[in-house]
């Protein structure tokens, strides 16, 4: 969402299409698959940014770095993705939304230790990182034309 669209006939686009086609072989269209996505959670009490920052420092900064910029290889390739700043997902990404970020974090982070944070901790740390500066989304004005804007959208 925060890069340049690939040409439809590029090698990269065709490779991704082939991969997705391979992933979905034998799966009927529209069918839900076990293990896809993650379970939605709710915060027992209002999320708190200060608590979130402490969790971030203790459990996330090792990989995503204290400044949230992640770690990148010599050719700019991502080793650990940035959670905020120029290299991170933009404000239009689902991950920029508190409820999605909390549910993803709860299920998958810290890497290799999914489901070790409480629901409250997942919301606290998600509030901390979703509210950091990140790239804008140029097409945001065309989002939710029917007025069905989610409650945790940032714009
Ligand atoms: C051991 C290293 C490690 C730790 C610790 C870790 N992460 Fe991650 N995180 C990763 C990696 C690697 C990815 C990319 C995973 C992938 O693409 O499948 C990732 C991805 C993410 C993403 C998705 C980013 C995107 O661009 O979509 C979020 C959000 C995230 N981590 C949050 C956290 C939070 C919050 C914590 C602390 C509770 C945490 N991570 C701890 C390694 C780590």
3D architecture notes:
The chain is mainly alpha-helical. It has a domain at 38-138: Cytochrome c-like domain (Cytochrome Bc1 Complex, Chain D, domain 2, Orthogonal Bundle), CATH 1.10.760. The protein has five helices and two strands, in the order αααββαα. It has a two-stranded antiparallel ribbon. Helix 4 crosses helix 5. The longest helix is centred in the first third of the chain and has 13 residues, at 11-23. The mean pLDDT is 93. Heme C binds at residues 55, 59-60, 62-64, 80-81, 83, 89, 95, 101, 104-105, 109-111, 125, 129.
Give keywords.
two-stranded antiparallel sheet, globular, binds heme C, Cytochrome Bc1 Complex, Chain D, domain 2, 155 residues, mainly alpha
CATH topology of the domain at 38-138: Cytochrome Bc1 Complex, Chain D, domain 2
Rg calculated over all Cα atoms: 17 Å
Shape: globular
Question: Total number of helical segments?
Answer: 5
Number of strands: 2
CATH architecture of the domain at 38-138: Orthogonal Bundle
Looking at this structure, what is the CATH superfamily of the domain at 38-138?
Answer: Cytochrome c-like domain
Element-by-element helix/strand order: HHHEEHH
Structural class: mainly alpha
Biased composition (Basic and acidic residues): 136-155
Pfam families: Cytochrom_C (PF00034)
Domain Cytochrome c: 47-133
GO molecular function: electron transfer activity; heme binding; metal ion binding
Describe the protein's topology:
Blueprint (H helix, E strand, L loop, with lengths): L10 H13 L25 H11 L1 H4 L6 E2 L5 E3 L17 H11 L10 H12 L25
Antiparallel strand pairs: 1-2
Helix pairs in contact: 2-5, 4-5
Heme C binds next to α2, α3, α4 and α5.
């Amino acid at each position: 969402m925060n890069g340049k669209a690939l040409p439809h006939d590029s090698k990269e686009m065709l490779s991704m299409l082939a991969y997705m086609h391979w992933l979905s072989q034998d799966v009927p269209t529209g069918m839900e698959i076990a293990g896809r996505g993650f379970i939605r959670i709710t915060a027992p009490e209002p999320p708190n940014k200060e608590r979130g920052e402490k969790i971030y420092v203790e459990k996330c900064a090792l990989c995503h770095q204290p400044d949230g910029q992640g770690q990148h290889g010599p050719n700019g390739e991502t080793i650990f993705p940035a959670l905020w700043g120029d290299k991170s997902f933009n404000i239009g990404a689902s991950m920029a939304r508190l409820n999605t970020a909390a549910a993803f974090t709860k299920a998958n982070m810290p890497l290799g230790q999914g489901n070790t944070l409480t629901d409250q901790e997942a919301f606290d740390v998600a509030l901390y990182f979703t509210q950091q500066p990140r790239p804008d989304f140029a097409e945001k004005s065309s989002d939710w034309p029917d007025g069905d804007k989610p409650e945790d959208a940032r714009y």
